[in-house]
């Protein structure tokens, strides 16, 4: 079986590439998917194709809907959803993805710094695993995907 793992969360670091490299090194039976991580492209998704939008509210609204086509589809197809909350920005989209995945009954692995524990207590309560590091995520993925 090839497991489908969706990597949600902050887009301002290379954490997805690092996880992919570790998965490849371990030769795990995992296919990775993710949102569009080019921030400008993601922000402009609603105006590039449907046309220009002068009002910021409608620009963001249209972009969110176009991005949701990808995000919802890939979360629905995923066996496991990993959600990383980074330290620099508030990731409301990551919290939404975690809630959506939980509502679908997806297996959630949450990663965040210790100091976010209180703020993310509801998100953590929906998770099957809470981690602090990329290595912990990979070790869990290795444990659950490799035949014993």
Give the helix/strand layout.
Blueprint: E1 3-9, H1 15-26, E2 30-33, H2 39-43, H3 45-48, H4 56-77, E3 80-84, H5 92-103, E4 107-111, H6 121-126, E5 129-131, H7 134-145
Parallel strand pairs: 1-2, 1-3, 3-4, 4-5
Q: Which terms summarize this structure?
A:
single chain, 148 residues, alpha/beta, Rossmann fold, five-stranded parallel beta sheet, 49% helix, globular
* Strand adjacency order, main sheet: 2-1-3-4-5
| Discrete helix count | 7
* CATH homologous superfamily caption: Response regulator
| Secondary-structure element string | EHEHHHEHEHEH
Q: Please indicate the percent range of residues in DSSP E strands (runs of 2 or more).
A: 15-25%
Detail the poorly predicted runs.
none
Describe the biggest sheet? 5 strands, parallel
CATH class descriptor name: Alpha Beta
| Distance N to C terminus | 13 Å
Helix content: 40-55%
Overall SS class: alpha/beta
Total number of distinct structural domains: 1
Count of extended strands: 5
Question: CATH topology, anyone?
Answer: Rossmann fold
In angstroms, what is the radius of gyration? 16 Å
């Amino acid at each position: 079986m090839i497991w489908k793992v969706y990597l949600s969360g902050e887009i301002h670091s290379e954490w997805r590439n690092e996880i992919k490299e570790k998965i490849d090194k371990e030769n795990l039976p995992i296919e990775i998917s993710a949102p569009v991580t080019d921030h400008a492209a993601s922000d402009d998704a609603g105006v590039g194709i449907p046309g220009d939008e002068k009002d910021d509210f409608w620009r963001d609204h249209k972009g969110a809907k176009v991005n949701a086509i990808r995000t919802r589809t890939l979360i629905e197809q995923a066996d496991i959803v990993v959600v990383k909350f980074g330290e620099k920005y508030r990731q409301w989209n990551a919290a939404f993805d975690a809630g959506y995945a939980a509502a679908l009954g997806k297996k959630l692995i949450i990663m965040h710094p210790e100091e976010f524990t209180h703020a993310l207590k509801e998100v953590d309560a929906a998770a099957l695993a809470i981690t602090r590091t990329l290595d912990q995520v990979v070790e869990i993925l290795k444990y659950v995907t490799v035949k014993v």
